[in-house]
Every structure is written in structure tokens, then in C-alpha cells.
Predict the structure.
Amino acid sequence: MIKNLLLINRALRILFLRETHQGSVHDKRLADTTPYPLPAGSHLLQDLGFQAFTLEGVAIIQPTKKPRGKALTPEQKADNREIARRRVRIAHVNSSVKRCRMLTETIRMCACSQRRSGCGKQGCATW
């Protein structure tokens, strides 16, 4: 299993990508060992896999977990729906990264922007 942590802004651009981690590791454990480049006053939207994860000076936004044997209030449900709307767009970015295999495949392009098999230039740094 491969794990990656991404920071994505409102314009759906990837701002930060943690190095790929092989194996089965909980999301929060990875997050605890990652130096995040977020300035104070930022908002971080995270899912319940990061329960109890905090950053100094950063407002954490995450869905409210349903208490055992109880129901969520209508306000909590409305907040969760609003968060889910925002998270769907982020999930699309994550799936694009996975679908295009951007983090698992080796790019086989030379510095001269030609495929390795077609490049005959002397001094090409990648061949």
C-alpha cells in the first residue's frame, strides 16, 4: 500500500506533497511526522482519519463524529454536509493523482523533453 499526504488550496492546486510512504500506516501517524508549511491563521480541512491532529495557529475543520447511541443535531448535520461538499472537490484531486499514477511511475523524459529512446543528443543529463 502506498500513502501520500497532500495539501490542496481552494483553487485545487497541490501546495504540498509528502514523500510517498510504503506500507500500512495510520494517517495521523504520518501527519505527526510531517512538517507542514502552513502559516498561522490558515484553515485546514481534514477528515476523521486525522482525529486529534492539530497544528499551532491553524484552525482545524473536520466533520462532527456521531456519538455512540445518539444522533447528530440538525446544525451538526448541516455543517457535515457543507464540509462534505468541499471535501468532494479535494477527493477529485486525490483521485487524479492516483489515476495518472504521478507518484508511482518514473518519468522517462530527457532534459531536452524527448523520450529516452528517441533522444540522441550528447550531454543529455538523464541518459
Observations:
- The chain has two helices and six strands.
